[in-house]
Amino acid sequence: MAQSPFDGTWKMDASKAKWTDKPAEAVLAGGMYECVTCTPAYKIKADGTYHSRPGGGVDETSVQIINDRSVKFASRKAGTLVGESLVTISADGNTRTVEAADYAPNGIVTRYSTTQRRVGAAPAGAHQASGKWLMDRINSASDEQMLMTFKVDGDKLNMSTPDGYSYAAQFGGAAVPVGGDRFGGKVQLRKLSANSFEEINLRDGKVRSVSTITRTPEGRLHMKSENKLNGAVEEFEFAPQ
Fold first, then answer.
1. In the prediction, which pLDDT does 114 show?
2. Sequence-ordered list of residues with C-beta below 8 angstroms from that of 191, at least 6 positions apart, any chain
3. Source organism's superkingdom (predicted)?
4. Where are the alpha helices (DSSP H) in the chain?
5. What one-character DSSP code corresponds to residue 91?
6. Which part of the chain is CATH 2.40.128.20?
7. 146-153 mean pLDDT
């Protein structure tokens, strides 16, 4: 049987990543933090303690102001730390660097760093982390977060990642649970052509994103993902390993 064009282990090429022109917006002022473009949007006290954050996948989030250019975030699910990040604004106020860590259920901690550029000013009197920001680049990321493995068996695709996420879904079949996803995500697959398929990601029965994955003539995988909740689009390329 001929090998599927999707079979193998693939690593994201951070230099090829592209993002939509849809900015993220937040306001940190008066002791309150508001994520305007989060889905759903939320507003909590920025006092360094955990506060309820319903509807966002996590149960609670904390926001701690470190200084006038740095803010630390942390989120928990069922009392367990699932992610944290340190946001630092440049001296000129025009870029922000996010140093983040995700804590997978299998115990692996993946770390990544990104840089974003300001496209909207902070409101008068607000912390410099406020305003509108567009993703600019990925500075670094753990291999565990950049790698994925596909194996096609008949009409079923098996996917796995080093940080413990996996699924075995039939093309054209029902949505199946994503192993290792503490948020209860599911995936449904649809074959588009011999070299392309659609991955539909759901949570609580609602479509959250749709990704089109295509094997390119250059022997890479191209992934274009659309967030169905806010319209943001991301594009990535993966090289064979």
1. 97
2. 171, 172, 197, 198
3. Bacteria
4. 143-146
5. T
6. 8-17+144-240
7. 97
Residue 241, token pair as written in the block: 């390993």
Cis? peptide before 177, omega within 30° of 0: no
Dist. CA 52–CA 39, nearest whole Å: 15
Phi and psi at 16, nearest 5°, equal: -100, 0
| Angle, alpha carbons 226-230-232 (nearest 5°) | 40
Choose among 221, 189, 155: nearest CA to 11: 221
Class of domain 8-17+144-240: mainly beta
Structure-token pair, residue 28: 């940190």
Q: For residues 61 and 122, give the distance between their C-alpha atoms in angstroms, rounded to a whole number.
A: 22
Please answer whether residues 163 and 110 qualify as being in contact, where contact means their C-beta atoms are separated by less than 8 angstroms.
Answer: yes
Which pair of structure tokens corresponds to residue 158? Answer: 């098996």
For residue 42, the SS3 value is strand
On the 0-12 / 13-18 / 19+ scale of CB atoms within 10 A, 68 is: exposed
